[in-house]
Write a structure and sequence with these properties.
The N and C termini lie far apart (171 Å). The chain has eight helices and 17 strands. With 369 residues, the protein is an alpha/beta fold. Helix 2 (70-84) links the parallel strand 2 (60-67) and strand 3. A six-stranded mixed beta sheet has the order 6-5-4-7-8-9, with helices on one face. It has a six-stranded mixed beta sheet with strand order 12-11-10-13-14-15. Strands 1-2-3 form a three-stranded mixed beta sheet. Helix 1 packs across helix 2. It has helices at residues 2-41, 70-84, 125-129, 156-169, 191-205, 244-253, 280-285, 312-322, and strands at residues 52-57, 60-67, 88-95, 102-108, 111-118, 139-146, 172-178, 181-188, 210-217, 224-229, 235-241, 260-267, 292-298, 303-309, 331-337, 346-351, 357-362.
């Protein structure tokens, strides 16, 4: 009897296990079929449902995660119900609207930091690598985070080009994009450089962003001009002038005889228009030939002319010519009068018999002869 009861017990256990295994196997087959229909529908490949997860329990789909709006949640429920057929959907999906992108690109000396949250960082990858070793940038701090629930940056490639132009133009700058505002700060070298960059920013903003202009222009640098005697003869001119035209005018006013080396006379960006620029060509045409071993310079600090002249009259002539240039400057004239040495006239004659009269001596010029 005892043996019979033991055998009956094991038979019941086997039947229960077989039933459980059969039901489990059938459940897995059902889940596999339901999951296959959902996958085939392409539901989870939809970008709107990238943050949605689905777990299956027989004919029930338990859905969790986030969507951007009520309409997206409704669309998810309808699509899933249609794919499952007779199954049931148990949804705990939250509505979480996407955030706007935020970007901050800041250069401080040799350091460049790029931070914020974006959906796609690929438009900014070149900015992470190419400025390193360029524009004086030595270190790039990459703090840019990718978030799936962040809106796309409109015209992101264009924004990256603006950032590159700003980083290359100034060693201390800031470009910030957030909450419908683009903020740009930095000091540019010239009004033309600012105008070009502002044009790029306005084209990017184009009504989608409010442009906060924190750009400034560096004060103009002083113009300068210097002329000196070259050791091998002729002149060496150097300095910085505001325009190509002013440089050409000054070079045309120099003496045509002596050789002129003008390689050091440059045209600068954002160079002030000096008061002496208009009168300089006339001065160069008037007294330059009267000065030996000249050194002449003009700058914001003042005017300097040194060298030697042959007479007090020549010195006075040069000083008068300088009057038109020295307005508002502190002229410093160091001209030394060096009178050419003269020797007394000598004259003699003598008789040489049959050969006539012999005339010897030194006269001031040929007309005296």
């Amino acid at each position: 009897m005892k043996a019979f009861l033991i055998a009956l017990f094991f038979a019941i256990v086997v039947v229960v296990l077989v039933g459980f295994i059969s039901r489990s196997s059938a459940n897995k087959e059902v889940v596999a079929r339901v999951a296959g229909r959902v996958d085939a529908s392409g539901l989870l490949a939809d970008e709107r449902f990238r943050d949605v997860k689905i777990q299956y329990d027989h004919l029930t789909a338990r859905v969790s995660g986030m969507v951007s709006s009520e309409s997206e949640r409704d669309a998810l429920f309808r699509s899933l119900s249609s794919a499952m057929g007779a199954g049931r959907v148990d949804s705990s999906v939250e509505i979480v609207p996407p955030t706007v992108p935020a970007i901050l690109i800041q250069r401080e000396g040799t350091d460049l930091t790029i931070s914020g949250e974006v959906k796609d960082r690929s438009p900014f990858e070149s900015l992470m690598t190419s400025p390193k070793g360029q524009f004086g940038v030595e270190k790039v701090n990459d703090e840019l985070t990718v978030r799936s629930r962040v809106l796309e940056v409109p015209k992101a490639e264009q924004l990256s080009e603006i950032a590159r132009a700003l980083v290359g133009a100034t060693s201390n700058s800031l470009l910030g994009l957030s909450d419908g505002v683009i903020r740009v700060e930095g000091q540019l070298n010239s009004p033309a450089a600012k105008e070009a960059l502002v044009g790029q920013i306005n084209a990017f903003a184009d009504g989608s962003y409010r442009f906060e202009d924190g750009l400034t222009v560096a004060p103009p640098s002083p113009a300068s001009f210097s002329l000196a005697a070259a050791p091998e003869g002729g002149y060496v001119v150097s300095g910085v002038l505001p325009t190509v035209e002013s440089r050409a005018t000054i070079l045309a006013a120099l003496p045509t005889g002596p050789k002129v080396n003008s390689d050091g006379l440059l045209v600068g960006e954002n160079v002030e228009l000096p008061t002496w620029l208009e009168g300089l060509p006339k001065f160069l045409q008037t007294p330059a030939a009267l000065v030996s071993a000249p050194h002449f310079s003009l700058s914001r600090e003042g005017l300097l002319l040194s060298g030697t002249v042959s007479s007090e009259e020549a010195k006075q002539e040069i000083s008068s010519a300088l009057a038109g240039l020295s307005s508002g400057l502190a002229p410093k004239i160091e001209l030394e009068v060096v009178v050419p040495r003269t020797r007394p006239m000598e004259f003699s004659f003598s008789s040489s018999g049959k050969e006539g009269v012999v005339v010897e001596g030194r006269l001031p010029d040929e007309s005296s002869l």
